[in-house]
Design brief:
Largest sheet: 4 strands, antiparallel
CATH topology of the domain at 1-43 and 260-311 and 319-434: Multidrug efflux transporter AcrB transmembrane fold
Distance between the termini: 19 Å
Strand order of the largest sheet: 2-3-1-4
Number of helices: 27
Number of strands: 10
Length: 829
């Protein structure tokens, strides 16, 4: 591979205009494909086949009025006083206007519902009074018949009046039966009114009113235009003294793929590059190549949005990874090229050698990230697999650009990637300056580094034990947003469970009549109300054949709470109810719980896969057993520590203002899986660039402990710069408007920070020093089986030595049993 990349780099340097033109053409083709095939993205995350999805699919056919998307508009008085009649009338007018919006099935007037509820309560009370009066009349008639029968029997005339008295008794019995039927109907209505008392649209103090919106399309298919039209309708006329807020489902838009925060991250990366490389041109090249790769990868992915369902976070993740790894990989090659130029290499010679050495490491490092992301498909979760595939493609493009386009640009730049002072020094220098002698760390220092680093990570990982997964709702939004205001107001005035009601569907056996269905409706509603953590149950409707009943169940706590999750499990476990009534649970809250559970179930399999992959790759690269164990153990530690930090901030509320979070929330359900894949790849990158230098020094004759210092000194500056760049690029997404993107950006930035500066620069050198010669031990039989990949490109350097460095070929080289002897040096002809 190193020899092939050497030749590719030399070709790209010599045919720079053709290579640059080819990449510009590819970028133009990607833009054209996006213009032709681009389609809308979705902000909803779904997994086909979950229990919620199965119920929703059936409802879409049998009960479409209950399957549509929904949202809520919240009206509240600014001073907390009750809504006046004029304000109520103004709100009702807005409701009527919004009812005609295309795509809206219904808009409920809260005051009409309140009046209807009051009327029903009055009817029940009046009905009870009427029943009591009718009962009294029947009791009086019964007393009269009983008295007449007794009198006739005493006079011996019972036979003469028996027929008349029996007819009167029959009328009384029929009246009693009618009263019993009416009483059952009345009590049924009263029972339904009682169990649904917690479902209110006007708060008890009269200061707040909720306007439910029901859409014709499903939650996933409601267009942004329809939502915008609803918001515009309710914002069209301001009501003095009344504020209006919209629930998360009405305002949740698609995240911006690139915004101000992301631009700030690139500026920070540019500053780091400028400080490290010393020239504007040198700093610009990694950014240009990364931007080109991101453009091709993201535009290419978006061109498929018209034919596949793509979650809006997918291209954003592609931008994150494309920028971060694109800049870093280019930096590794540019840094090697600059070092060689300062040693007196000719430009094209240096480009080719940098491509074959650092470019070889880039290809191998990028391959680990690519495989880790592509492996997300093994989870069996479509949106996660697509997310991983898009991210993997963006990384692959970044790698190919780093070893093709970058050499062409470096050739175009010539020696201008060096500063004037560096160029002057190169022209006047003779030979290579002597290197300062390297001294081992010292055992006490190495032990302290390992203990402090591992201890800190273990402490940060403690909160992982209480990690809960979930999907965004209004509580995830920033405190100043309308979605957060709507969420908190609803929770305060109506109860937290109103923010996440469950849709419970009951299937009646056989062919029930309307009367049977009405009786079952009361029975089921009362049974549902008896569950723990249920505060209200309201009938939603019945299908035309009376076989399916739908209920809105309001939990005691919010949609992200543990009690609501338990309630969903309890409802499903209770099916079938008495009489063979099957229950199903659907709705946004239930769907989020199902998705989180399936993602949690898939995480152990994925972690086992990437950990196993890590061990295999590292054994092949470093021809060692201990180094892979250290590298993989460090990855696991940094992953757990990152998740622990997220739990402390998001769930426990520590420093939650960093992410603009107003109250404790669970961890984004797919974040641990995505974080594991990305952090695994990046951790292997940093290990590769540090430990490969250690191995190179070791095989060239340095002692095991001295090689730790030599490799660390050789790689620390570029790894530090690369990590700072990644942290700045990922961290910029913390300022995104999207409640999904913010925790992803923070987790990636925090994870890279821990892995690069604690694991790779503190723990890894310490443990490598303590291991000594044992760090590079490998059983002979295994050494003979695995190939020699030569990631650091040492063999390439021996095949293409620089004139000033030919003496290096004469240095003794320590080889493992399975490593071939280096070939004789040859000139680059």
């Amino acid at each position: 591979m190193a020899e092939l990349l050497f030749r590719i780099g030399r070709y790209a340097a010599r045919r720079r205009l053709a290579v640059i033109g080819a990449w510009l053409l590819i970028l133009a083709l990607a833009a054209a494909a996006f213009a032709v095939g681009g389609g809308p993205l979705t902000g909803q995350i779904t997994i086909p086949g979950t229990p919620t999805d199965q119920v929703a699919q059936r409802l879409a056919t049998d009960f479409p009025e209950a399957a549509g998307g929904s949202g809520t508009v919240v009206f509240r008085t600014e001073d907390g006083s009750a809504l006046t009649d004029s304000r109520r009338a103004a709100i009702s007018t807005l409701v009527a206007d919004a009812s005609g919006i295309d795509g809206v099935r219904s808009v409920t007037d809260p005051f009409a519902v309140e009046a209807q509820r009051q009327a029903q309560q009055q009817q029940i009370e009046a009905g009870r009074t009427q029943l009591e009066q009718a009962q009294a009349k029947l009791d009086q008639a019964q007393a009269q018949v009983d008295a007449a029968r007794a009198k006739a029997e005493a006079a011996g005339r019972l036979d003469q009046v028996a027929a008349q008295l029996d007819a009167q008794q029959t009328q009384i019995d029929q009246g009693r039966a009618q009263l019993d039927t009416q009483r059952k109907q009345l009590e049924a209505g009263s029972a339904l009114l009682q169990v649904s008392a917690g479902v209110r649209l006007v708060s008890e103090d009269g200061s707040t009113a909720l306007v439910p919106i029901q859409f014709t399309a499903s939650e996933l298919e409601v267009s942004q235009e329809t939502k915008a039209a609803v918001r515009a309708a309710f914002d069209s006329t301001a009501i003095p003294g009344v504020a209006v807020d919209f629930s998360n489902s009405l305002v949740q838009g698609l995240p911006k793929i690139f915004g101000v925060g992301e631009a700030a991250g690139i500026v920070v990366a540019a500053i780091v590059l400028l400080i490290m490389l010393g020239t504007l041109l040198g700093a610009a090249l990694p950014i240009v190549t990364a931007a080109t790769g991101v453009g091709i990868g993201v535009l290419g992915a978006l061109s498929l949005a018209g034919v596949v369902d793509m979650v809006s976070v997918t291209p954003v993740l592609g931008v994150m990874l494309g920028l971060a790894v694109g800049i870093d990989y280019a930096l590794f090659v540019v840094n090697r090229h600059r070092r060689q130029l300062k040693e007196g290499y000719e430009v094209h010679e240096s480009i080719a050698l940098a491509n074959g050495t650092s470019g070889n490491a880039v290809v191998f490092a990028g391959s680990t990230v690519f495989i880790a992301l592509l492996a997300l498909n093994v989870t069996g979760i479509p949106f996660l697999g697509l997310m991983g595939t898009v991210g993997a493609v963006c990384v692959a493009i970044a790698v190919v650009i780093a070893v093709t386009l970058l050499p062409g640009l470096l050739s175009l730049a010539g020696t201008r990637v060096l500063s004037r002072g560096e160029r002057a020094h190169v022209e006047g220098r003779e030979g290579r300056p002597p290197a300062a002698p390297a001294r081992p760390l010292g055992t006490p220092r190495a032990l302290a580094q390992a203990v402090v680093g591992i201890g800190a990570l273990a402490l940060l990982a403690v909160p992982v034990a209480s990690m809960r997964l979930g999907l965004p709702d209004g509580s995830w939004e920033s405190p100043g947003s309308t979605a957060y205001q709507a969420y908190t107001i609803i929770a305060d005035k109506f109860g937290p469970g109103v923010n996440g009601p469950l849709l419970v569907v009951a299937d009646l056996p056989g062919s029930p009549s309307q009367t049977d269905a009405a009786g079952a409706q009361v029975q089921i509603a009362q049974q549902l109300a008896a569950f723990d953590d249920v505060v209200a149950v309201a009938p939603v409707g019945t299908t035309a054949d009376h076989t399916t009943l739908a209920f809105e169940v309001v939990p005691a706590e919010g949609p992200s709470s543990a009690s609501t999750e338990q309630l969903v499990s309890s409802l499903r476990a209770a099916s079938p109810l008495q009489g063979g009534i099957e229950l199903g649970v659907a709705g946004a809250t239930s769907g989020n719980i199902d998705i989180s559970q399936q993602l949690a179930d898939a995480l152990p399999l994925y972690l086992a896969l990437v950990v196993g992959l890590s061990l295999i790759i590292m054994i092949v690269v470093f021809r060692s057993l201990l180094v892979p164990l250290i590298a993989t153990g460090g990855f696991v530690l940094s992953l757990l520590a990152t998740l622990g930090g997220l739990v402390a901030i998001l769930q426990w509320g520590w420093f939650s203002s960093v992410l603009g979070i107003g109250q404790p929330i669970p961890i984004l359900d797919f974040l641990p899986t995505v974080l594991a894949g990305i952090l695994f790849g990046l951790a292997m990158d940093y290990t590769l660039f540090l430990a490969s230098g250690m191995r190179e020094a070791y095989v060239h004759g340095a002692s095991a402990r001295t090689s730790v210092v030599l490799g660390f000194l050789a790689g620390r500056s570029v790894v530090t710069a690369a990590a700072i760049i990644m942290v700045s690029v990922f961290g910029a997404f913390v300022f995104s408007e999207s409640s999904i993107i913010r925790p992803i950006g923070f987790a990636l930035a925090f994870g890279v920070l821990l892995d690069a500066f604690v694991v790779r620069m503190l723990v890894l050198p310490g443990l490598m020093h303590l291991a000594g010669e044992r760090a590079w031990w490998l059983p002979g039989w295994l050494d003979r089986l695995i190939p020699n990949v030569d990631v650091e490109g040492a063999a390439l350097e021996r095949r293409h030595p620089h004139v000033a460095d030919e003496h290096l070929a004469e240095q003794p080289v320590r080889r493992g049993p399975g490593e071939p002897a280096p070939p004789p040096a040859q000139s680059d002809g």
